[in-house]
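Problem 3 from the worked examples.
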Amino acid sequence: MGKDVRLQKMLADCGIASRRKAEELIDAGFVKVNGVTAKIGDKVDPKRDRVTVRGKSVERQTGHIYIMLHKPRGFITTMNDEMDRKCVAELVKDIPERIYPVGRLDRDSEGLLLMTNDGAFTNKLSHPSMHVPKTYRVTVRPSVTEEQLTQLAVGVMIDGQQTAPAEVKVVLQEPGRVVLEIVLYEGRNREIRKMCDAVGLEVARLKRIAVGPVKLGMLQPGKWRNLTAEEVKRLNAAAKPDKREKEETKNADDTAHAGTRPKGRTASGNSRRGKRR
């Protein structure tokens, strides 16, 4: 068999890390192929080449594992940390397979975190074109106005870019605090906290309660459980490219050939800002 598998894909398939994280490991010089330090773009024959990460041999996984973890606050979403902070690896150390997180939750957030050793599954759910909805229960202070709710739902500017439309509703309103349910269709860094800050709301608590059709339910903080085969199937089904995005890509290709812009679109592509459901 020829060397026809990209190294980062092989590492992801073996449960070492996601493809993006695997590229970081390669770029940092932690990965060697047959004793030679690897570089981005290298290909390997998984059956013949000896691949090591930080001096440890990489072995192909014989089966895939999929779990959900209820990440508590105070833990970072990584499998190791140079600053010796608490990380989610401590919570799944009884799992013999080498797994890693699908996406992330920041240190001060809690809730549902998927973990697996299936690189293709991770890439599918994490790719920005898939728009897998993620549902959060967010406690804000001191109160919220209709204008702020509308701003959050329509989209606000953070880091120089407008957020995609979201679904926002009030779950509970008490003096000094409001509990919101927010459904996001994109996965930018600390997005909800930045969105709330942009409209003048203070986030007191942030908890992810669902990823696509899979809900956290009554799983207790710090505990994990295996996903059922049906849950894995439903997550895979939820990870499908947005139809409008596929249509726009086709229109853009047609435009490049015809030299004209598709009707009904502005130059900035604002036609994508419709509600996704």
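Problem 4, a separate protein:
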Amino acid sequence: MLNELSNDSVFSPEQVLENRGRVAIFIDGSNLFYAALQLGIEIDYTKLLCRLTAGSRLLRSFFYTGVDRTNEKQQGFLLWMRRNGYRVISKDLVQLPDGSKKANLDVEIAVDMMALVGSYDTAVLVSGDGDLAYAVDAVCYRGVRVEVVSLRSMTSDSLINVADRYIDLDNIKEDIQKIPRQNYTYRPLSTIGLMDLSEED
């Protein structure tokens, strides 16, 4: 028995994933947006949540983003996110001297990751920002397993080095992208039960 255990001491990623415990997801919205642009895909956020949770128990999924209060389309998107499993943490965009707008939410991500230690076993960080490496390292020392998910070309080596697992968005893009609308018909979940009942009659 001991020999069997020693021979099987190196676990495959699949075996390790089976014991992720409670999962907390931290998504850097702008980082994911630019990664999706690079990949040439549109993210399906319902699929993304399912893929990142991967059958584990989800504690909470945070989505951090800068907001433009005058952008109605963005406001609608964030409302949808709030109603579909995400806790949205937003900050007003600040105009930079070059005319571009930016909101940095690294501090908010780091604080939430640290504050919730003890409530979750695995953190899934969707960001390639090297500024978060120190927070990831600190969380790991508190006994949390950290998985980093981002596009390799946009990911800091320092972040990959402190994470327990790294997943390249390019490898999971088929699982998380929106299917072009002409390929499927949309049926709201609330009407499926009604349709089934009427078919029985």
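Solution to problem 4. The CA atoms of residues 72 and 78 lie 10 Å apart. The radius of gyration is 19 Å.
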